Amino acid sequence: IQDSLIQSRKMQALGELTGGIAHEFNNILTPILGYIQILKNNIDDPILNRYIELIEESAKDGAKIVKRIQEFSKPKHKEKELCDINRIIIQSVEITKPKWTYESQISKKSIEVKLDLKAKGFVEGTATELREVFVNIISNAIDAMPNGGFLHIESFNKKGNIVIKIKDTGVGMTEEVKEKIFEPFFTTKNERGNGLGLSIVYSIIKEMSGHIDVSSQVNEGTEFEIKLPAKGAGLSKEYLNEGFEEKQIYKIL
Ligand code: ADP
Fold it and tell me: Which residues belong to any copy of the Histidine kinase domain (predicted)?
């Protein structure tokens, strides 16, 4: 409980910080974009006009980034819905497919993805956020397997919960790394990572009254286990066989 309290305070502080920066940045961009309009209307020199356009494009890019930051830091209004967890896992695998097929091509080693999706029932949350959870975890697993390996995703029911296990045969983590992975900005990937993925995953799962655990062995692999309260078990039957197989193997050679 203490840990999750610290974690949610950190995320809140992070939101306030980024929100504050975004606000300041907007104040800077407003006069830049405003005066560019006046310059554009009053300068005839084509070369100078091209420069002004370049400044405007860059300032607009800046404004777009600010908007993204504000969206991230704003407390989001979320419509909760009953989500079919198996379907969301399949979608997340599809979303990350370009990444693992690409990694497979460059390393010439295969990443094999196996799905054992037996969970029945739904979880309450937003599908977009749940996809974010699995996309982040799967992407990390692929990053952890530069020489290829297995990714095994399971879902099943246990005592009123839906349990999802995501297991890779990657590089694994030391105890020190394992303790910090859910902290915002903690990354071992230098400029390739921003360290936000798992902190976002953690907040989403907590908000859904769920749990997330990780076990890992250096050079053996890592397993994430997520537990979410199951809802509407009676509704799931017809859904399960619709559109996808319960058990599916993706193999890239
Ligand atoms: P990022 O991926 O940008 O580094 P994350 O918050 O998603 O940020 O992950 C934080 C760190 O946790 C990673 O840099 C990595 O060291 C570690 N990690 C996460 N998933 C795995 C995994 N499946 N295997 C090994 N290490 C992992």
Answer: 20-232
